[in-house]
Amino acid sequence: MRILSRNIASLSTVLTLTFSSLPALAWHDKTHLSVAEAAGFDLWYSAAAPDVAKSKSEFRPTEEKNHYYNNNAGKTVDAAMVMSQIERYNKPDDDEGHLYGAIIGAVRAYKAEKESGKYAEYPLAFCAHYIGDLSMPLHNTFYDDFNKNRHSINDGIVEGSVRNNIGYIQRNMKNITILDEADLAREIAKVANTALHLGIKIRKEKRDMTQSEVYIQLTRSASLLNAVLKYVGKTPVSTVS
């Protein structure tokens, strides 16, 4: 019995160390897929792939910093901040993260590959994922104990219902027009600020997001992704009646 107890304790320690060392994710898979599908992205089923890539240790240093921005000072996000992050896209030596710049970096990658005649859809799958991350409050705020302890539960608040509510997201989407990168940077900043303010609010109130708050955020991501698809010349598709 003692040997069994020791073995169980050892296994528990290993599991604790393993899971505590994993990088924080944003929104669970079905939530990401639903945002991309609501936006009309034809490869919506690939929208969770960036988290899959990030889970492999050899890709993690390059990819994980594209998924968040630790706004340690709680600064209001503006277009200049967004543009300043672009050159950090895919660079591992960045403690803050550079989610905002990663969105534009992925758009640029799509355009470059399309112009060269290559199959260019995969950069858009990354872009779709990053735009999903953009509305998640805990990916726009200080990564403190509150963030670490509540991150997973807030990622999954609507995971069980979201595949049945794609139409609801679509009906609440706003029309956004993007003509150039300056417009895109401003729209990224708008969504980032809603996430930042909600993150500050739930931290102050020591609570998790409500389902209503989550769906408002997801609608903002879907609206922006829909606009980005149009901006790069893709016609959004409808998969929901």
What are the defining features of this structure?
single chain, about 240 residues, mainly alpha, globular
Written description of the protein model:
With 241 residues, the chain is mainly alpha-helical. The protein has one domain (26-144, 159-231). The chain contains 11 helices and no strands. It is globular and about 50 Å long.
Q: How much strand? A: under 5%
The biggest sheet amounts to: none
- Which percent bin holds the helix content? 55-70%
Structural class: mainly alpha
| Distance between the ends | 59 Å
Total helices: the number is 11
- Shape label: globular
Write the element-wise H/E pattern from the N-terminal end onward: HHHHHHHHHHH
Give the mean pLDDT.
90
Using only C-alpha atoms, the radius of gyration works out to 18 Å
Count structural domains.
1
* Tally of DSSP β-strands: 0
Low-confidence stretches: 1-23
